[in-house]
Amino acid sequence: MSTIIREVGLIGNYNVEDSRANPGATAIYDFFPSGLRVTRIWVPAPTMYARDLSGGADFQVVGFRARLQERRSRNRWVTVQSSSERRAFATDKKPAEFPKELGELGGALAFDAPGPLVDGRLRPYEHGRYRIVHSLIWFQPGTETNREGYATVAITNHRQTVANSDGPNHFLGIRSYCRSPH
pLDDT per residue over 132-156, tens digit each? Predict the structure, then answer.
């Protein structure tokens, strides 16, 4: 289950899918001379609803941003990559349908290790432990700029798989973070 880091202000219902059966992120590993290394991390969008303010249908703009964090010391996580902020309309009965960008898989965001390709493959993330954190935002009804509440949620289940160009990916297990090398 994901970990709620903080909830502030007025927020609606939300769900960040994250369980051992349905992890909140998938780390793709590839083989390098130094061993298995993380090259890409897929993150699905959260499910977000408008606040329920009346007996009828309520509409609201909601948004989210996913952040990739690296553990730098005992319990200090530092953001090393961040997605753009996604916004969409939601109702209190129907969740937001966030727009998809080119290259997304089923609405999921992809974090690729920065830098040039290595032997025609994605460059691996350096040594370290990585996790995904979602920043969820609710805007004041009738506006797209005035924030009225937000939640910060950390993913605690990361699926670990090895890329396989000849067939399905090889499943390694579920961890509370992504580790490179594996």
Answer: 999 999 999 988 889 999 999 999 8
